[in-house]
Design goal:
Layout lengths: L2 E8 L4 E6 L5 H17 L6 E3 L3 E8 L2 E8 L4 H18 L5 H6 L1 H11 E2 L2 E2 L4 H9 L3 H36 L4 H11 L4 H12 L3 H13 L4 H5 L25 H13 L20 E13 L5 E14 L7 E5 L13 E2 L5 H7 L1 E2 L15 E10 L9 E9 L6 E10 L7 E8 L6 E8 L4 E6 L3 E9 L5 E8 L9 E10 L8 E6 L10 E13 L1
Parallel strand pairs: 8-23
Antiparallel strand pairs: 1-2, 1-5, 3-4, 4-5, 6-7, 8-9, 9-13, 10-12, 10-22, 11-13, 14-15, 15-20, 16-19, 16-21, 17-20, 18-19, 21-23
Helix pairs in contact: 2-4, 4-5, 7-9, 9-11
């Protein structure tokens, strides 16, 4: 058999979808389809095929439409009818109702199914199950590429933080009177192994200004010079004007200022650093039989004035069953949940009946005779994803804005004010709220005059920066926290990372909730169940 084209037309002859498997132009296919209407109208037989002098039309009527195979006249009619049956089954898979607009919306999926059945005009030996499997198959290369892109973004973020810390450190050294040129000169000097040059530099900086001594000490400390080597007596350097070649010598009762600075820095560097921030995991909730959990994670990027630059929501519907008697079940979602909403990308587990989910908001197994696992382990049966547009705050649970101004009394110090409140669309309390400012400094404190949520600085270290803990924030309460932070420049304070979570919430951001859980057996009785919603941040940034 040779299939030239497969088409869907209305009873009035209007072509909706057509796929050519041979070298046919659009005009030729349109001409053949226009002839089909006249052949069907003049046909008095009960057969579902008609012929003209060149081709054969094998067709099947459904509602107000025809699905047509255009083949050559020598094609095997038995095989053509079998192919037509496969095409009709594939259409039933992607169409909930035979509406013209729905056919247009599902045209890509229908044509893809046609391509799986026919290759270069010849039928593949495939079942409908195999076709669905091939169409649903995920790309391994795409997953690898996504992982590579995520790793690149993570490395770029880490490099940005490292450079910000380096710039802040250099600015701090500049304020202490340590010019960069002097540090680099010290480093170049240390590359030499000549002991005479080393003694000369030690002798010179022992009588230099305090700022020059600190600069020299910094360069020595970075290249690994120990306190003992700095504290040893330094041979005198010959003075040009001294009689008999004798030079100036250091007084015996005077302490080497470089050694004193080294000892002081040694005591500071050995102080223990604060522990790193680790998000605590909630305890596993008690399961009384059937537990349905709506888990969601939010990623967002907000500007300093509170504008939403981007947002992304990911979620999953997890099921836990601990009793064999309850394993034959199906989940009925709230009727208000629009599973056909194109802004949400819903994806069901391979064992879940997708048609039942799209048509009835029911999450159930394809094979009603089978049961869900009842080992009290979490099973994700439904996932979804939504990307919010710019300035769209529908996915934003926490709105944040900042005010940054230089301090009037101290140079290099900034007054930072954080304003935040829970979005009215979400309207639920958030726990473990923290702000992380990527600045490595010990000069940071809370401004008590602007701290109406009892915030506190939890830790300050080079790894995490300054971590401000707010704790729980209730709905309807706006919070304000003021900080006084030493930083080289304003840009060093950003991007700020925000962490929070919500456990046992009443509703999810997506609005997905469970209305009932019923038995998948014939009696369809309601089963006892518990449901909850959780939310956490994945990457919530203030840039």
């Amino acid at each position: 058999m040779v299939v030239l084209a497969a088409s869907i037309i209305t009873r009035g002859g209007k072509p909706l979808v057509s796929r050519q498997f041979r070298d046919l132009t659009k005009d030729r296919v349109t001409e053949l389809l226009s002839k089909f209407q006249g052949l069907v109208a003049n046909s008095s037989s009960q057969h579902t095929f008609v012929e003209d002098e060149h081709v054969r039309y094998v067709y099947k009527p459904f509602d107000d439409y025809y699905i047509i195979l255009i083949t050559n006249r020598q094609s095997n009619i038995i095989q053509d009818l079998d192919t037509l049956k496969i095409f009709a089954q594939s259409m039933n898979t992607y169409l909930n109702g035979y509406d013209e607009n729905e056919i247009f919306e599902s045209a890509f999926e229908i044509v893809s199914a046609f391509d799986e059945v026919i290759t270069m005009g010849y039928k593949e030996n495939l079942s409908m199950t195999q076709i669905n499997t091939y169409l649903a198959m995920e790309s391994h290369e795409e997953k690898i590429q996504e992982i590579i892109e995520r790793n690149k973004e993570f490395e770029a973020a880490e490099e940005r933080k490292r450079r910000a810390k380096e710039i802040s450190r250099r600015e701090h050294e500049r304020k202490l009177g340590m010019p960069l040129s002097a540090i680099e000169a010290g480093n170049r000097f240390q590359a030499s192994n000549d002991p005479n040059l080393s003694n000369a530099y030690n002798s010179y900086y022992s009588n230099a200004s305090p700022a020059a001594q600190q600069s020299y000490y910094s360069s020595q400390h970075k290249t690994g010079i120990t306190e003992e080597s700095l504290a040893e007596p330094v041979p005198p350097v010959p003075h040009a004007g001294a009689i008999g070649g004798r030079g100036m010598s250091l007084g015996g009762g005077r302490r080497n200022p470089i050694a004193v600075a080294s000892q002081r820095q040694s005591r500071v560097s050995t102080a223990p650093s604060p522990p790193l921030f680790q998000e605590t995991e909630d305890e596993k909730p008690t399961n009384n039989g059937i537990l349905v959990t709506v888990k969601e994670s939010i990623s967002a990027e907000l500007t300093r004035d509170g504008t939403i630059a981007s947002s992304e929501l990911k979620g999953s519907l997890d099921l836990r069953i601990n009793s064999q008697e309850l394993a034959h079940s199906k989940i009925l979602l709230d009727p208000k949940v629009d599973v056909k909403d194109k802004s949400y990308q819903f994806k069901t587990h391979p064992n879940i009946d997708k048609n039942l989910f799209l048509s009835s908001n029911v999450v159930g197994l394809r094979d009603q005779k089978k049961a869900f696992p009842f080992n009290d382990q979490t099973l994700a049966v439904l996932r979804w994803r939504k990307v919010g547009a710019a300035d769209d705050n529908s996915l934003i649970p926490l709105e944040v804005s900042t005010w940054v101004s230089p301090s009037d009394s101290e140079e290099g110090v900034f007054d930072v004010t954080l304003e935040f409140e829970i979005n009215a669309n979400y309207g639920q309390a958030l726990k473990d709220l923290r702000f992380v400012i990527p600045v490595a400094t010990e000069k940071a404190r809370i401004n008590d005059d602007t701290n109406d949520v009892n915030a506190e600085i939890e830790s300050a270290d080079e790894e995490n920066g300054i971590m401000v803990k707010v704790g729980q924030l209730d709905a309807g309460i706006s919070g304000v926290v003021g900080l006084i932070i030493e930083a080289g420049y304003e840009e060093a304070l950003f991007p700020m990372s925000i962490f929070f979570k919500s456990s046992g919430a009443e509703k999810a951001i997506s609005g997905i909730s469970v209305a009932n859980v019923k038995s998948s057996r014939e009696d369809a009785t309601s089963l006892p169940f518990d449901s909850q919603a959780t939310l956490k941040t994945e990457e919530y940034l203030l840039t």
